[in-house]
Amino acid sequence: DQQVKQNSPSLSVQEGRISILNCDYTNSMFDYFLWYKKYPAEGPTFLISISSIKDKNEDGRFTVFLNKSAKHLSLHIVPSQPGDSAVYFCAASGEGGATNKLIFGTGTLLAVQP
Amino acid sequence: DTGVSQDPRHKITKRGQNVTFRCDPISEHNRLYWYRQTLGQGPEFLTYFQNEAQLEKSRLLSDRFSAERPKGSFSTLEIQRTEQGDSAMYLCASTPTGRQTQYFGPGTRLLVL
Fold first, then answer.
1. Tens-place pLDDT, residues A70-95
2. Which of B8, B56, B11, B13 lies closest to B35, judged by CA?
3. Rounded to whole angstroms, how far apart are CA atoms A99 and A9?
């Protein structure tokens, strides 16, 4: 059972435009959400996070929006740059217990065209 | 560089051999996690350490897998009698107590022939 879902395997946008990556989750116990960026043959790099008590968090070109009632979050990248081309993973934690292990989606490959 | 480091970065082995990976977390991060990532999937949780104590293991961690963190600093993940299905990227992450953001190392890519 996939608790965190990224239904778009890939996304292509033009340089300078907005990239919107989406993520849905099923477990209402999740209380913290993160986005990671991953290049091939490297580990995930942390981008931005949001607590369930907030609905928006912004860091430079990156903004994460959380809609708890819809169990949906999104990552906005504005403006998109060619260097943003990578796989983006949504992750969630807080399903219970003190482990705070991360549950990941399957990723979305973002291609930013020059 | 004070990030999470992993060694080796790549490992090719024959089926049936044992392999061991090492992870050095960010200094003073007392929480350490191991994940495994296969092609087309996101990382999947394997096990978690708080200091030297292994507090949770996923059912993905079969009896052939063992992890240690003897002094609460670096950690090792050993796979005995490797199988082709063990081929994957093994990722280590760390975080300090009270924080939920995990910082990942570069991973060890294992190929079992």
1. 999 999 999 999 999 999 999 999 87
2. B56
3. 29
Tell me, what amino acid is at A21? L
Residue A5, φ and ψ in degrees, nearest 5 = -125, 135
Using DSSP, state whether B60 is helix, strand or coil: coil
Does A43 sit within 8 Å of B4, measured CB to CB? yes
Measured between CB atoms, does A36 come within 8 Å of chain B?
Answer: yes
pLDDT digits (tens, 9 = 90+) for A32-47: 999 999 998 899 999 9
Give the mutation candidate from A42, A101, A106 for the B interface (greatest B CB count, under 10 A): A101
Tokens 């943003």: give the residue: A84
DSSP letter (8 states) at residue B47? E
Is residue A93 within 8 Å of A6, Cβ to Cβ? no
Mean pLDDT confidence for B31-51: 95
The whole-angstrom separation of Cα B22 and Cα B7 is 5
Any A CB within 8 A of B27 CB: no
Is residue A27 exposed (0-12), middle (13-18) or buried (19+ Cβ within 10 Å)? Answer: middle
Q: Which residues of B touch A89 (CB under 8 A)?
A: 42-43
